[in-house]
Amino acid sequence: MDKAETENKLAAARTRLILDKPFLGALALRLPMIAADPKWCQTAYTDARNLYYNPAYIDALSIEQTQFALANQALHCALLHFARRQNRNRFRWDIACDHAVNPLLVKDGLVPPPGTLVLDCFEGMTAEEIYPCIEENNSDEPEEEPQHEGDGSGEPKDEAGGQGDEKDDDAKGASRPRPLTQAEEESLAEQWQQRLAGAAQQAQQAGKLGGLLGRMVGELMQPRLPWRLLLARYMTQYARDDYSYMRPSRREGEMILPSLRSAEAEIMVVLDTSGSISEQEIVEFMSEINAIKGQLRARIVLHACDTELAKDGPWLFEPWEEFSLPREIYGGGGTDFRPAFEWVARQNRAPDLLLYFTDAQGEFPVCEPVFPVLWLVKGKSLVPWGQRIQLN
């Protein structure tokens, strides 16, 4: 296959990726494709600026496998693998990055080329979580670290040991690209974050972003504000001090002026005692609630639940009382969120806000309640409704 045919094959694979997988296609479209010298590029490689490929490698792939190769490189860039390595071993980091990306692509229906690293045990894990699982004994690691399907965070050198240029030669292809400077790395990281957001928005509008890949993108798009700040913002939002323009009695005159009306807010707090939440984490959470409660006129109703409500609950705390952990809370079983909401339904009034401190791994009520619910979640699990705040 000559150069023109290889380029046409890559263009066709990218076009099909744009049509079939618009999220991945939009990302791949951001990487100019450059034929590389086979002496240093055995398969495909990206430095977050360009995508370098070995023509012989691309020629040996089917069009579906070529789509996978393009998506692999683009997703490494979108996940900022080139900027996240820090002081980690480059060889192990590249392997960890592939183990993080490849299961996402396989689950999304793409066909991996032969020899692609795909292990189900790493599904849903980040490269940082996978890295410690990669064997430290790299006896099979070559002297020059490979630029295979990895994230391109390496700093390749030319055959003479110096920094290469991105010049293209019809016979040999492009030499190794020079490494990113710190300023370039920061600028590219910002650009790829914007590209990720734009690609996700386009794919969501087309209804073609779901499954494991859609969930991963959703987590990346969540606000990165500290959970304490978010918690304070939402609790303050439901404070019930407000101005009223209700007509006064005739004794107060005919003019209608705004007056400040205050009412005591009732906030319900439910602790997940299934065993996945440590006592120290619960103490930190409750101290934060207590600090915010001091700024609001809020009455706190505390309950605890694993698969059933705590027998000693609920515990009531008036606005002037300190919000603290009861001396004993029994739990440690499974997780079921329904008992807490069923208990609320039996009361005379609904809370102004319900805060549920949990890992979100349990049985949810089918229907969303009429009152606002704020889930403070430890871990990566999602919630079907309500507002979710990431704790860690």
Write the SSE topology.
Layout: H1 3-20, H2 22-28, E1 33-35, E2 44-46, E3 51-53, H3 55-60, H4 63-78, H5 90-107, H6 127-130, H7 182-205, H8 211-220, H9 227-237, E4 242-244, E5 259-261, E6 265-272, H10 279-293, E7 298-305, E8 315-317, H11 338-345, E9 353-358, E10 373-377, E11 387-390
Parallel strand pairs: 1-3, 6-7, 6-9, 9-10, 10-11
Antiparallel strand pairs: 2-3, 4-5, 7-8
Overview of the structural elements:
With 392 residues, this protein is an alpha/beta fold. The protein folds into two domains: 3-220, no CATH class; 227-248 and 256-390, Rossmann fold, CATH 3.40.50.410. It contains eleven helices and eleven strands. It has helices spanning 3-20, 22-28, 55-60, 63-78, 90-107, 127-130, 182-205, 211-220, 227-237, 279-293, 338-345; strands at residues 33-35, 44-46, 51-53, 242-244, 259-261, 265-272, 298-305, 315-317, 353-358, 373-377, 387-390. The strands form three sheets. Strands 8-7-6-9-10-11 form a six-stranded mixed beta sheet, with helices on one face. It has a three-stranded mixed beta sheet with strand order 1-3-2. Strand 6 (265-272), helix 10 (279-293) and strand 7 form a beta-alpha-beta unit. The protein is elongated, with a radius of gyration of 28 Å. The model is unreliable at 138-170 and 241-247 (pLDDT under 50).
